[in-house]
Amino acid sequence: VGDSSVLDCHLKNGVTMVTWKFSPLIGAPCTLGYRPDTNTTNRTTCSDNMNWKSRPDLDASLEIWHVGIAQEGNYTCEVVSVDGSFHKEYYLTVLVPPRPSLYCDDHGSPVCEAAVGKPPARVWWVLESNSTPEKEGHDNGTVTVLSRFTARSTNVTNTTCMVFHPTGNWSQSIAC
């Protein structure tokens, strides 16, 4: 999320048409087209943050700025030339880093939370715990993972929560 992404599409000799088709997980499909014979481009229901990387007659790559969850899905570049039709397919997966936090609840128990991550984060306690993480899905495809520390021993005063995610890991200790 927030980064830019470039999807390559190589031109062939004698190009008659180049088309990018995007099928998002949610929302309307998008099409970008280019015809060299008329030097025209066409776009249908594409968001403003995606377009040709440069001039489509020189480079048919697609650039997506400030990638968001709405840009997740299938992308296909089709190049039609005198030699035939050529396809290049991509599936863009958008990773959303969770917002980790560690705090003490009203009962004095440690609570570790990895809010609105995609995919869901894995939450672990350094000391053994009887807790089972709870997951709450959100409409935008992100997931919040919450784990309450339940000690197997009553003499635990300090514990550490660790959050693992493809975008990075995090750990913090707390005494409640």
UniProtKB/TrEMBL annotation:
Q: Name all Ig-like domain ranges.
A: 1-93
* Protein source organism: Smithornis capensis
Select a single GO molecular function from the record's annotations and give it. signaling receptor activity
Name the SUPFAM superfamilies on file. Answer: Immunoglobulin
Is the keyword Cytoplasm in the record? no
**Topology versus the membrane, per the UniProt entry?**
Single-pass membrane protein
Q: What single Pfam family name could you report for this chain, choosing any that match?
A: V-set
Q: What is this protein called?
A: MOR1B protein
Q: Which residues form the signal peptide?
A: none
